[in-house]
Every structure is written in structure tokens, then in C-alpha cells.
Amino acid sequence: MQNNKKHKNHELVKDWIGLIQVFTCPEDAETRTALVGLMRQILFELHDFLIKNVGITEEISLKILADDFTDTVINRCPEKKLADVVTGVFDHIAPHAVNVASPYFVGHMTAAIPYFMVHLKAIVAALNQNVVKLETSKVVSVLEKQVVAKIHRLIFNLSDEFYAEHVQNTDTSLGSFMEGGTTANLTALWVARNTALRPKDGFSGIEKKGMMAAYKAYDIDRCVVLVSKRAHYSFRKAGGLLGIGNENIIPVDVDGNNKLKIDALENTIAEIKREGRTKIIAVVGIAGTTETGTVDPLKEIAAICARENIHFHTDAAWGGPTLLSDKYKHLLDGIHLADSVTIDGHKQFYMPMGCGMIYFKNPKSLDAISYHANYVNRRGSVDLGIKTLAGSREANSLILDSALKIMGARGYGMLIEHGIELAADFAEEIKQRDMFQLITEPELNILTYRVCPPELREEMKTADPVRFIKINDELNELNRTIQQEQREAGKSFVSRTVLEQENIFPGSPAGKIVVLRSVLMNPLTNIEILKDILDEQEGLYDMWRNGTLGHEKARKDTDRHGME
Amino acid sequence: MQNNKKHKNHELVKDWIGLIQVFTCPEDAETRTALVGLMRQILFELHDFLIKNVGITEEISLKILADDFTDTVINRCPEKKLADVVTGVFDHIAPHAVNVASPYFVGHMTAAIPYFMVHLKAIVAALNQNVVKLETSKVVSVLEKQVVAKIHRLIFNLSDEFYAEHVQNTDTSLGSFMEGGTTANLTALWVARNTALRPKDGFSGIEKKGMMAAYKAYDIDRCVVLVSKRAHYSFRKAGGLLGIGNENIIPVDVDGNNKLKIDALENTIAEIKREGRTKIIAVVGIAGTTETGTVDPLKEIAAICARENIHFHTDAAWGGPTLLSDKYKHLLDGIHLADSVTIDGHKQFYMPMGCGMIYFKNPKSLDAISYHANYVNRRGSVDLGIKTLAGSREANSLILDSALKIMGARGYGMLIEHGIELAADFAEEIKQRDMFQLITEPELNILTYRVCPPELREEMKTADPVRFIKINDELNELNRTIQQEQREAGKSFVSRTVLEQENIFPGSPAGKIVVLRSVLMNPLTNIEILKDILDEQEGLYDMWRNGTLGHEKARKDTDRHGME
Predict the structure, then answer these.
(1) Is the Cβ–Cβ distance between A174 and A156 less than 8 Å?
(2) What is the DSSP letter of B376?
(3) Chain centroid to CA A466: how far?
(4) For B92-147, what is each residue's pLDDT tens digit?
(5) What integer is the mean pLDDT of B245-249?
(6) Do residues A520 and A422 touch, judged by C-beta distance below 8 A?
(7) How far apart are CA B411 and CA B194, in angstroms?
(8) For strand A340-344 and strand A311-315, is the pairing parallel, antiparallel, or unpaired?
(9) What is the Cβ-side half-sphere exposure of residue A513, based on CA atoms within 13 angstroms?
(10) What is the pLDDT of chain A when averaged over all its residues?
(11) C-alpha dist (Å) from residue B524 to A20, A148, B106, B415, B545
(12) SS3 for B287?
């Protein structure tokens, strides 16, 4: 009898009563204390554990690790209680997870989050509202409209009257939360496509009739989107998905600073117009490229788009929150001229995965993708699911709203400033070291460089193209190896990518350059840590020269291939 | 000095030191205790509060509520600390949120979740792994492949050898986690489209070349997808998005039990073939329709698809977990014959929002949508982002894996059985009451019915079509009103939809019928609660007949329109 009444947290869910109990908030103090204790472990012990296990350890290879995850039968009986699951996270997950929160982890856009984010995510889960419709979210839908208006205002800065009219307007939409930047960019191009090929006399629009009918109605053979060569791969994906064809996402040349070349854009547009029978449905500018953190000349792109009547989308998934820094918001000059803007919450808003957002200057733009059903998202309702790719989704807007209140614009501004200034300092440090070559100067808080010993650097300056390419290939192999070895040593992490870069020495030919990429968004990262990382890379280079790195490498058959 | 060292949880983030502190796990016991105390509030007090505030209260209208959410300026300075945010959730969010966890809330597919889900979501946030690539997730990517294989096995039940080969195979994929059922259905049709219009001699495939080029290469004018009239609206959305055109998502007739009619499917296929120049890229069967919970004749559809060489997709977003009940898994007979299957984690796996999943029988199917980039998702890697619509995303697989271990297949099976058997009991209760008419018999755990007073019911049986429609219109208005009034009374909630239904009396004409829809997935809901809900509806009918409901209605100018 006592067993039935008492909520025993340490028992398996073995019968109907046990099952009912996991749906019922426990009344007894003992169980409540046990459940809170588990939260304490998640909040602190997990964090403490990860601090001690920085970086990506390779003590166990991916192949051996994977051998522990091969059972594919779902057990009929419960095998764990919640406490066991938490223990299991400590024993089997955390040791082989990646400590993205480490200040030595400066290779990716996934980083440390403030601890209060875990509380906020727990609130979202505890409320479990579904923002697809008002009937399962009510106030949270209203809140989402408000947060969306706040970020819209940050980007577009329209009039008080505009925001008063639209913030809670059930007929209009200033933007939406979604899974990530990829779906945000997709949504932007979806809207641009549907707007370019909208209903007209005798044609009820591409969304309804499809691509073939649309091309006939508009008497064209092709749609294209023009993007910087440095654009995120999600645009190609969106092109494929939308039926445009991903080869019609046309890369436009960038200059030596990785910025979209305005004359190349003009030439591409002119060429497409000469060819004819092609519609340019959007031009994309980037505010913080994934690889180099570069901001495209947004103002100039906007002027061209306005003249040509083309949708101008800005991918500010990375750089968007720069607008919260009074000191550096000018770096995004012209973003308010965009027709749509992508920003990621899980990047420089320091939110947990996965939170993307899309914003449209015109509050009617999202009408181009609206859908209704009898049982949900009825016409004229506040139901947010009417104008989103997703159906059911979680209330991440609650997290951003709370985070903005806890941090203030100024708090986020300080984080932005720290990153940008630390990147500038790091660039200076790299330039001062003989062993390194800075490949892309930081504009925001991302830079790329490579290990490039002085003797090879000198030789490259005067080498003929054949020899130049040979040395470059050698450097590529060297940098690939050093990045892998450093990652596997488990103390620190920079990422690597390949840039097609010309003029890295005056007049040098274009070539594929393997670069080390550093993303500086963790406030705990400082110049001393970055110097340590460079020191370690210099040490690895010494080993490479002595042939000890090759030996090490041959011994491992791990996930080298997997990570390439 | 002490201030710098001590981590004061009760201070605003007002300077750089405060900012650093929110990224640093507090060392002092006082702050840790405060943070855990907030988690306690989130875990228990929030739940206790919601229990007391069941349903969707309308004490404050949506319009008045929205008036509190109109400020659109982000404060420069921090205005709240975490404790204030939690208090704010209690004061301003929870009272106007929807208590989806209430056993009286039986109208939607968003329901109660076991309390351990909040812990699991907190773990996901605390680890903050990004499953797009191995470098930011490592073991979690490996774990996701395992969980995916477990659910794949549940659906398709292939050989031990098959799962041994594919569970951790980096070249193949058995499925993927994603935001929701909508993206899962979209992914299925995306793969089906790309497979139907794949590369061949002189044509490099639709994904690359686009729809127009594909239609030319395959010498067709149109692609279509055949779906039940009861299919989820996400298929139309996918049709629009993919460039197929949403009017080419062709609804196929259903029978009196809302199941796709096999002869109608055959006729539609034959007709399309006669017309020519059209490719049927997929047929969709549903395992648990959104409105009525019906399962389509999956085996028969599979046989036709096999004969015609068409991709067979099954949308089991709702019904999928029925496979975990030994007693009722036969209701999904034939699902293993599908080429792809959608299942939602946030529905009958009782996970928090938002977790969709897609599964493909053929481990190579997802190759049709693979994307790569220099800095991520390199060829041949384990990077899960290669074959997903999303880029960055959170590690919800960790939640499902843990939940399966805590609940066991048997635990989920008991939940399924409870829902199905309760729905059957509820149907009996409805049939026994003179005031109600059961519109769709439950097959799984969803049923629809309406208030239909005996005198009108008798008259309808013999009424001529004109009179029949007039009475039906009147009943529609009555049921619409009762559903709204009950929702706004805030004690309980059933949803409503409109079904096109014929033969609701022998020989009666087809008509649009407003029905009350009941979704029974909460283990705390029982027949007594459902009787209460019917009693309340009978009471509302009495008020309607006395004219007191109309009065009440006219007085309110709230979100009636908003909810329609």
C-alpha cells in the first residue's frame, strides 16, 4: 500500500502504477529531493566533468566507440531508471562527447552557453507548448510575435507606428523561429521563388501549379539565385529542394578579402539578362561567412537589387547579433535594406541547439507560403504554423526573450566586442610569429591562417607556378596533419577548411589552400589561450619535421577518414 | 574582492565580470543551491500550478493579453535575473499557457510528458552537442545511428545481418531525426522526387538541374503524389516547396471508415497513365490520420506500389508507436512494406516538442539528398548533417534512447493499449447517450462525434436533401459553439474539425460535418473524465436551447475569430 502511494524514484517503470507515476508530479519530499538531485548533477557535475575533459579526446577511436552502440533491439522491459540514465551520461556519453564549452575549443560555431540556458530549456520542456497553433500555446504565440518584432526592429529599425501596427497583428508576420539557419535560408528562397512566380492572369502561382507550369506562365526556362562563392551550402540545398536546381545557385566571385565582388555581380546579372529566359529570384549577401566571418558589401548589393527588382536576402546567421554592439554594428551597414534576413539563435545569441530565425521587412512576405487545414491554422487566426515550414515546434522564442532580458543588449554587445577584439589580437600574434601565415584578416570574430615555415614562405614568393603549387600542396598536407593531431591530442581544437585564394603573396596564382580556422565566441577564451594553441601547433610542426608525427599517424587507423 | 570571487546569482549581469560568471559554473555552495532551487520550481511548482489551472482559460481575452506584449525595443541594460525570469513564467506565462498535460485536455496530439523528459531535455541542453557533424557531437552521432536502427528494426524488422551491417555504417543511413513530422514527410517526398527523376544518360538529375530540365529529360509534364483525402496538410506543403505544385498532391477518396479506397487509388493511377506524360512519384498511406486516427490499408497500397514501381511512403507520425504494443501492432499490418516511414517523437513517444523522424527501408535512399561542404560534412564521414534537411540541430536522439530504456517497449505498449481501449469505451458511452452521434469509430485512440439531439437525428433520417442540409448546418453551428464555450470555460478541451462524410445515416447525402475530436493519449485520462466532458457538453446544449449560450457569446469579442 505504501508502495503504491509513495513515488519511488529508484524503481523501474515496471507496471501501470509505475507508469502513471512518471506522468504524475511526485508529492513526497523524498522523491522530489531525488529528482532535484539529478538536476543538480546535470547542472554542475556534468559541467565540472567536461571542464576536466577538454576538447575532443581520441583515447578511444570512433570505430571502437561505435562497437558499443550496435545493439538494435528495443528491450521489452525497462532497463534503467532516470538516475541510471544520468549515470550513463557521465559514464558513456560525456567522456566521448565534444566539450564545445571549453575556451580551448575555438574551431566551431557551436560554443559555450550561459548556464541559465539549461534552466530556460527546462522551462520550455516543462510547459511543452506547441507553437504551431494558438490552441496549444496561447500566450507563447503572443510572446513569439513580440520577440520577433524586437529582433525585426534591431535589423530594420522601422517606425514606432510600424511596430505598433504589426507586433500583435494576426494578419501579418514579421518573421518566425525555426530549426536552424538552413531552414531559415530555405524559407527566404521559398518566399522569393513564390513571389517571383506569383499568381497572375490565368496562372494561379508556382506553389499551386508547380515549376513547369510557372516557367511556361512566365515564359522562362530557368530561375537562378546569385550568391557569394563563400555562401553557406544551405543555399545549394535550398536550390535543389525548391526545384530550382542547385547548379542554378550561381556563385559570384569574391575579392581578396572574401567579399562578394560588386563588378562580378553586375557582370553576372548582365550576362543572365543577355542570355534571356532566366529569372533571378534572389541575390544573397552574407553578414559573417561561415569560413572567414566576412561581411559582403550589403549596401551596394541592396542598390543593385532595388534597381533590378530582385529579392535581396542577407544570411546573418552568424553575424546578426553584431547589431547589439554599438561599437561594431556599423560592420553590418546596409542590412536594413535587405528583404529578408537569417539569424541563428544557437550561434551568437548563445542559445542551445537548434534555433534559427527568419525575418522579412515586408510583413506580408510570408503570405507567399501560407497553408491552412480544417483542424489547425485556420484562416485569419494567430496560429503561427500558418506561415512556417515546420508544423509542430517548440517554444524557443521563450528562451531568446528571457536571455535578452537577462543579458540586455549591452551584455550581448560585450560578447560581440570581446570576440572581434580578440580576433584582431590573435591576428597580430599570428603575424608576429614566423611560423604562421595569416590567410584571412578577421572582420568579425573569425580568422584563418596556416602553419607556413619561413623557409617555404620565402621560396614561395619567387617560385614559378609549378613549384609554387608543389610547395602549397606540401603545406596543405602539413596543416591537415597538424589540425588532426591537435584535435586528437584533446587539449584544444581549431577547425580547418579549404579556401580558393589568390594573391596570398603579391601576384601568386590562385590555389586551394588548407587553412586553420578559428572562431572566437567564448568569453573565457583569451589571448593567452590562443598563444598556447599556436605553441602547440609549433610543437607539432617540430615533430612533423623530425618524422615523429608521421609515425604517430601511421599507427592510427581511427576516424581520420571519417573526419576528412 | 569578495564580490568578484563570489558568484552572486541574485545580481544582474551588469558588467564583464557578471557576464563571465554566467558562462562559468558557480563554485560556491550558496549560488549552486539557488540555481538548483530554480530547477525545483521549474520541475514541481510549475507543474503544480498548471494542475490547478486546467485547460485553456479565457478569463483574459487574447486581445487584452496581447496588449501586454507590444513593447518592441530590446533593453540596453539587463532587466531581469534568472530568478525573475522564473517568477515571470509563473506570473505572466503559465497562467495564460495551455495546460496540455491536463487529463481533461483531450483535443490535441500535444499532451502530457513524463517528468523525466524535462531532465533529459536539460541534459541535451547542458551537453549542447550539434549533430550536424562528428566534430561537435562525436558519441552522440554514434548513439543517434543506434537509436535510428532500433526504430528502423521496429518498423521493418529486417535480418540481424542487415542491422549488424548498417547500424554504424558510415556510408549508409537508416533514417534521421528532425524537427517534426512535416519535415519528415517533406524529406520522404524529396527523396522520392529525386529518385524518380534521378541522373541518367545526358542528365545529371533533378536536384542539380531543377524541375524544368528534369521534366524535359524524362519527357513528362507533371509529377504527382497520391494521398488519402485525410492526409496531413504537410503533403500539400511539401508539394509546393518541392516545385511539384501542391495541386499535384492528389487526394484519393476514402471509404465510410475514412480509409483510402483501393479501387479509387487504382482508378486514379489508371487515369493518370491514360493521360500520359505524368510521373507518380509517391503514394502515401497513413497510419493514424490526424483527424480520425484511421489506418489506411497499407498492405494493399504496398502491393499496388510494388506493381507500379512507385515509392510508398507511410505517414505514421501518430500511429507509429502502436508497433510497441504486442496486442495492437497488427493494426499497422503492412507498414514494413513501405519505402519510407514518418514517426513523431513528440506525439506517442511522449517526448518534448519538437522531434520528428524519417526512416527508409533502403539504407541508400538518403543518398538522393546528400550535400557536402569543405568545412563540414566531408564525403565518407559519419557527419549526420550530410543527409538531412537541417544543418545544425540538437541531439534529441539522446532523449528517445533514454526514454526507451526507462519505459521499455512494454511501457510504451501499455500507453498505447490504454489509449485504444479508452477510445473504445468512450465510443460506447457516446453511443449510449441520446444527445450524441458518433461520427467516426476509433481504430486507434482518436474518435470524432457531435452533439445531435434525438429529435433532429430522427428528422434527418427521413429528411429530403434540402432539409437535411439545413439541419446539418444548424448542427454544425451548434457544435462549433459548444466546442468554443467548453474551451473557454477552461475545465476541459476537445478540438473540432470538419469532415466531408457521407452515409452518416443510411443513404444520407455527403456533407461537411463539424465534429468534436477527441485524442486519447494521456494515461491519467479515464472514462469518468470523459463522461464529465460529455456531461458538460450536454449542459452547454441545454443553455444553447434556452438561449443563454447565445447571450454569453454575443458578450465576447475575444479571440473567437482568432480560433476559427
Answers:
(1) no
(2) B
(3) 38
(4) 888 888 888 889 999 989 878 998 999 999 999 998 888 888 878 888 899 999 99
(5) 97
(6) yes
(7) 39
(8) parallel
(9) 25
(10) 90
(11) 7, 36, 11, 10, 33
(12) strand
Q: Give the Cα separation of A159 and A416 in Å (integer).
A: 26
CATH class label, A409-563: alpha beta
Q: Which of A286, A410, A289 is nearest to A338 (CA)?
A: A286
Q: Where do the structural domains in chain B lie, given as residue ranges?
A: 2-99, 130-395, 408-563
Nearest in space to A83 (alpha carbons), one of A40, A139, A38: A38
Nearest CB neighbour to B125, from listed A70, A118, A382: A118
Q: Does A457 touch chain B (CB under 8 A)?
A: no
What are the Cα distances from residue B558, in Å, to A137, B553, B554, B562? Answer: 16, 10, 10, 8
Q: What is the pTM assigned to this prediction? A: 0.94
CB contact under 8 A, A136 and B110: yes
CB contact under 8 A, A39 and B248: no
Taking a contact as any Cβ pair under 8 Å apart, which residues of chain B between 344 and 373 contact chain A? 344, 346, 352-354, 369, 371-373
* Chain B residues lying within 8 Å of A139, measured CB to CB: 65, 92-93, 95-97
What strands lie across the sheet with B175-178, from one edge to the other? Answer: B175-178, B356-360, B340-344, B311-315, B278-286, B222-228, B249-252
Same fold across A130-395 and A409-563? no
Mutation pick from B72, B159, B207 vs chain A, by most beta carbons of A within 10 Å, is B72
Omega prior to A55 cis, within 30 of 0: no
Q: Does domain B130-395 have CATH number 3.40.1190.10?
A: no
**What are all long-range contacts of B252-258, with beta carbons under 8 Å and residues at least 24 apart?**
B252/B226, B252/B227, B252/B228, B253/B229, B254/B228, B254/B229, B254/B230, B254/B294, B256/B501, B256/B502, B256/B503, B257/B294, B257/B440, B257/B441, B257/B443, B258/B230, B258/B289, B258/B291, B258/B292, B258/B294, B258/B440, B258/B499
Question: What's the Cα-to-Cα distance from B8 to each of A44, A350, B25, B115, rounded to whole Å?
Answer: 16, 21, 12, 29
- The residue length of chain B stands at 564
Any B CB within 8 A of A517 CB? yes
How many angstroms separate the CA atoms of B68 and A146, rounded? Answer: 10
Taking an 8 Å cut-off on Cβ atoms, the answer to whether A212 and B211 are in contact is: yes
> Residue A476: its chain B contacts at CB < 8 A?
none
To test the contact with chain A by mutation, choose from B14, B58, B120, B211 the residue with the greatest count of A C-beta atoms within 10 A, namely B211
Among A156, A212, A294, A487, the strongest candidate for a mutation testing the B interface, having the largest count of B CBs within 10 A, is A212
Residues of chain A with pLDDT under 70: 1-10, 53-60, 373-380, 550-564
Residue A27 three-state SS = coil
Which CATH fold would you assign to the domain B408-563?
Aspartate Aminotransferase, domain 1 (3.90.1150)
**Is the Cβ–Cβ distance between A161 and A427 less than 8 Å?**
no
- A chain contacts of residue B98, beta-carbon cutoff 8 Å: 129, 135-138
- Give the sign of the dihedral formed by CA B263, CA B267, CA B270, CA B276: negative
Nearest-angstrom CA–CA distance, B393 and B385: 9
Within 8 A by CB and 6+ apart from A208, the residues are A199, B240, B245, B246, B247
CB-CB under 8 Å, B25 with A234: no
For B205-244, what is each residue's pLDDT tens digit? 999 999 999 999 999 999 999 999 999 999 999 999 999 9
Q: Which of B140, B129, B51 minimizes the C-alpha distance to B94?
A: B51
The reply to whether B70 touches chain A by the CB within 8 Å rule is yes
Shortest distance, CA B451 to any CA of chain A (angstroms): 18
Q: Which of A284, A199, A100, A312 is nearest to B394 (CA)?
A: A100
Residue A314 to residue A301: CA distance in whole angstroms: 10
In whole angstroms, what is the distance from residue A242 CA to residue A557 CA? 40
What are the distances in angstroms from CA B373 to CA A499, B209, B505?
11, 19, 60
Closest partner residue to A411 (CB to CB) among B13, B109, B563 is B13
